[in-house]
Amino acid sequence: MGETTTPSPEAPSMSLPLMVRNRQPAETESPEITARLTDWFTQARTFIDNYISDDDTHLPDPDTSLSKAQLLSLAIGFTGCDTTESRDQRTYTLIYTDSEQGKHNFQTICIPYHAPSSPLLFEREDGECRIVWKPTGEVLTRPRLHAGIFGASNHYYSRVSPDLAELPTAAIVSPYSTCAGGCLSCNRNEVGSFTPPPRDYIAQHVASLAADYDQRGWDRAALISVNITTGCQPDEDRELSMMLKLIAEYRRQGFSNAAFFPFTYAIDSRAAMDQLREAGCLGFIGTVECFNDTERLRQWGRAKGAISFEQHLAKYRRAREAGFEIVETDYVLGADSHQEMLKGVAEMSAERVAVVPNIKRNYSPAQLDSNHPDIWAMPGQYIADGFTACLATYAHGTIKRRAARGSVDYLHRHGHNSVTLRDLPIRHT
Question: 261, 399 in Cβ contact below 8 A?
């Protein structure tokens, strides 16, 4: 591992105001932000250069330890990038390759509202991507482009072959284009990507996906994993109704082998979970987001954010009791102290919950300022320690591993017999 830093002792929580949504100027340039991000990334890069990954070559799954390239991609994701690209797309999913281990991983970058202040530049030319260190012009890495998320439709294919060809095995879908959660730190709020859905949004969404399968010559039965990350309804009854109607429409349209994985904060009761299980949901994804109850309320608001850590644990126990094969929670590194982060992951793991991590994408100065002092004081180490702890919980089972195995089986059936799990890019979100 890289050189370690000891976090400062826990201090009493400051009384911080609720975050404010969508009040950022179109672009801002701040010497203070430039200096802060330049200093942080410089220290993070030193940590990454000295980082030694755990050897997991004896294990079938390639997502059990961090590679240097993955750690670099997370540091880039946290910092955000400037770009000469159109500001219509503020999020890109890239695929990084580690030269030492040969691993590939997906990771998103954001083009924040303070993009001119970032020391990093995202460039594309002749189909090639580059992340450039602006102070010197050095090319840090040459990832490949998977998608511009906010320029995409209400679905995208989350699994690709080793040559980056999209596969029909797994989809992440978001047909309900608004959300009742009103989370104060929501990235979709920051970039203004919520829109009023049409009245028949469920039928339109599934028909659009079915038409795309037909146009590509794919068998609809090849879809085995549907991650439903659509916007939430105002209450459990309407959320459950939406999920059940969506699943029924997929069945009606011939997606006969699809298993469903709802991502929701609104569904809480055992009765609702039982109905999801009966409808064909194999997994349940919760939204703990962070472990500190005060920060969750401050950053995610009074709908999702008011659900306490203990209430989340109780919900995941109910999900296990309901028979879900996979129980996950979404976790965003950055809001918790280093100590709270590791303690929270351990408590989740004790309940057989897979903690699926991602780094916070900071689209605005307000989001940048919402991060805990420990992530600034421990560049690289905070991220490495958090991801290492989270990846250990994958032993409880994850949607991503199931979809990866199904994708390898699909490739084998179509003549790519030498492909293994390690040939596919690693996905956490």
Answer: yes
Q: What's the mean pLDDT in 147-157?
A: 68
Q: Look at the block and give the residue holding tokens 């450039």.
A: 132
- Written as one string, the DSSP assignment of 381-429 is HHHHHHHHHHHHGGGG--HHHHHHHHHHHHHHHTT-TT--GGGSPB---
Let me know if 181 is exposed, middle or buried by CB neighbors in 10 A (0-12, 13-18, 19+): buried
Q: Are 82 and 134 in contact (CB under 8 A)?
A: yes
Residue 405's SS3 state is helix
Give the integer Cα–Cα distance in Å for 287 and 186: 12
Retrieve residue 153's tokens: 């439709």
- Which helix (H) or strand (E) covers residue 93, if one does? strand 91-97
Judge contact between 383 and 341, C-beta under 8 A: no
Backbone angles phi, psi at 122, to 5 degrees: -95, 125
**pTM for the whole structure:** 0.88
Do residues 265 and 229 make contact, with C-beta atoms less than 8 angstroms apart? no
Q: CA 205 to CA 49: how far, in whole Å?
A: 45
From 423, 413, 421, 403, select the one nearest 163 (Cα to Cα). Answer: 423
The pLDDT value given to residue 186: 59
pLDDT value of position 117: 96
Residue type, 77: G
**What are the tens digits of pLDDT across the range 38-64?**
999 999 999 999 999 988 888 888 888
Higher pLDDT, residue 313 or 93: 313
Rounded Cα–Cα distance for residues 390 and 394 (Å): 7
* pLDDT tens per residue, range 316-370: 999 999 999 999 999 999 999 999 999 999 999 999 999 999 888 898 898 899 9
Rg (CA), the chain: 21
Question: Strands 104-110 and 91-97, how do they pair?
Answer: antiparallel
The token pair that represents 344 in the structure block: 């929270």
Q: What is the DSSP letter of 177?
A: -
Nearest to 280 by CA among 243, 253, 312: 243
Tell me the H-state helices in 192-321: 201-216, 236-252, 270-279, 293-304, 309-321
